[in-house]
Amino acid sequence: MPAPEELVALTGPPAVLIYDDWYPAIRAGELSPKKMATAMLCGIPLVLGRKSTGEIWAMRDLCPHRGIPLSAGWYDGQRVTCKYHGWQFEPCSGECQEIPSLTSHDHLEPTKIYAGALPCVERDGYAWVYVPSPGAGRVKDIAALPAPPRLPTFSDNFRNAHLTADLPCNVDHGIIGLMDPAHGPFVHQAWWWRSAASIHEKTKKFEPIPQGFRMSGHTPSSNSAPYKLMGISGEQVTTTIDFVLPNRRYETIRAGEKWFSSLTTVTPVTPQTCRIDVIAAWNVFRAVPFVTAIAKYFGARFIAQDQQTMVEQARGLRFNPSLMLIDDADQPAKWYFALKQARLEGRDDHPLSGPVELHWRS
Ligand code: FES
Ligand SMILES: [Fe+2]
């Protein structure tokens, strides 16, 4: 698999990005008071860290003085010091607190200068960063922002896992690949999943939700082998999959007390590349040892199949071919583009006026 930086060279056209929202930038476990970390998000180079008090922070990785990356400097768990002229910044606010070259003859007040701090919160093992529209300036009131997303959980005790994969395509291709039902039997062929020969017609119910759509389904009293393995039998299984702008897919499976929950996001790393992150939690098989390792193994194989396919797709997309979306298998992708366009234009109309059924073979 190519490294993330090599992926940029492989890619096709950029996507238009949605700003003024939260995106996962990096695993929160990588942030420490001893060392700064870097990440790319929406084409913005970020420097991130954790204060000795535990709070995490993110700033544009550019000194406001001459633009050298702040990550080239020093961090003591409280202040970031620029490597070039030693300006010191409080990283949560970005406020400049010290300009070593100033003398009593200067009237410049350092605290009037800010590095580009971005709102940053820790949730579900990730540092979520709020990315304002280009040129919007500093976000002063974090409390006024919409809440960052959270993985839904339904009991106090559960296990969890996460997976991540860089994709060489723009965020739109990553998202429509994620919601595409027709690739399953081809891309995810495996003895433990299914084969192309198992394709059959399906009917799925969709309904509009704010900024997205929901696919819902009930399996009355499922006695199928996978559900029995999960320790579920004779109970109604309810599955809900929500897609919500800008990039979130929530899947919830519930049967009585048992539940599985995942939040998958496709995040623009640059306008041409993206990254898929899956966070999952469950209270099924809690008593079985090694289940997290097994779940991660199969989950990682599954994501690697999508990743491999998108690496191959990127080879085609470099030539900017004209593409098509068909009914009904590509209908969720059409809704995604319509929802995104409405959001970019500041309209609040919705492509679904009510519940609909879609039919496809997969
Ligand atoms: S470039 Fe950072 S202090 Fe001058
Ligand atoms: Fe897939």
Explain this structure to me?
The chain is of the alpha+beta class. It has two domains: 21-131, Rieske Iron-sulfur Protein, CATH 2.102.10; 159-346 and 356-361, Alpha-Beta Complex (Naphthalene 1,2-dioxygenase Alpha Subunit, Chain A, domain 1), CATH 3.90.380.10. 18% of the residues lie in helices and 32% in strands. The strands form four sheets. An eight-stranded antiparallel β-sheet has the order 12-18-17-16-15-14-13-19. A four-stranded antiparallel β-sheet has the order 2-3-4-9, with no helix packed on it. β10 and β11 form a beta hairpin. The radius of gyration is 23 Å and the shape is globular. The structure holds FE2/S2 (inorganic) cluster and fe (ii) ion (FE2).
Set down the secondary structure blueprint:
Elements: H1 4-10, E1 21-27, E2 37-41, E3 44-50, E4 56-60, E5 74-75, E6 80-81, E7 88-89, E8 96-98, E9 117-118, E10 120-123, E11 126-131, E12 159-167, H2 171-178, H3 184-187, E13 201-209, E14 212-219, H4 225-229, E15 237-244, E16 248-255, E17 258-270, E18 273-282, H5 291-317, H6 331-344, E19 356-361
Antiparallel strand pairs: 1-11, 2-3, 3-4, 4-9, 5-6, 6-7, 7-8, 10-11, 12-18, 13-14, 13-19, 14-15, 15-16, 16-17, 17-18
The structure holds FE2/S2 (inorganic) cluster and fe (ii) ion (FE2).
